[in-house]
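dumping this here before i forget
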Amino acid sequence: MSVTVAVDANGADLGPAEVAAGAAIAASQGVRVVLFGPAEAFGEVADGIEVVDAPVSIAKAPDPVRASRANPDASIVLATRAVADGDADAFVSGGSTGPALAAGLFNIKRAAGIHRPALAIPVPVPGDPVTIVDVGANVEVRPEHLVQFGFMGAALAQTVLGVERPRVGLLSIGEEETKGTPLVVEAHAALRDRMAEGDTFDFIGNVEGNEVTTGKADVIVTDGFTGNVVLKLMEGVSEKMLRAIRDVAGSSRRAKAGGLLLRPALLEFREVIDPESAGGAYLLGLRRLGVVPHGRFSRVGIAQAILLAARAVDGDVVGRTHAALEAARALRVSPMSGSPSTVASP
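structure:
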């Protein structure tokens, strides 16, 4: 891979050194990494890694927009600027989503015609993987935002997961098109009409919470507040189930014997559903790609996030996603020019 990924090492729960260790794993697989963070915390870095000393962190800033403007030397600001200037092809940030989004908007900027960038994550459900959009970038949305999220997620599923004709569903409280909030009802009609026009993806209607993991849809669209709750609930239930299985397997001598027989299959199952294996969420809708892994990820998850970003650059996820939106006439149009508009501010 001849791809360069800018990595913000500040904000991750396990510290900059763990991020640097993840960068070393990714570099060993051919990705060039530019690491932004406190250089003294990294120690000796591996070949293929360039260090930019950037100790200032705004990962915990209460106002990410203001912090991005007021701290031009912050690690996430410098990382996104490197992408904007063409010194890197994508960025990865394990800190809070807010600063990554704000810095990305200020420096990389929205792609032409995009209302709002969104976080899309392929959830590794065994046998029925599903991509959820949005999972945290937009707490409040309008129907036209959800329409774009649907096309973004479908293009991602097609490009990255190889789904030939993605099925897109809208998260709601009932299958009927009249169920849900006024926002959901309006978005349902808009998604149905736009996807019918494009004839590339299939809108299957509303999807209820108990159907998220059943394979009914390849892509599920929702606002960032609801999507984040759904994602973390799924992660919590998965972790609890694995702990419960482990406890039961060690509860008696007979159970321990059976546990030994099941151990290889259980380890494989854990690997499939482990959030770190997914690498993180794609930040779509900017002119260049961002990947936001969970702040608690270890070096393994950080490495997966960097590799995910590199593969997405190779697969031209940004270009293909934007092309899908354009083909469906789902881009925001400037009232003055009649062409897709570009808005730089958050």
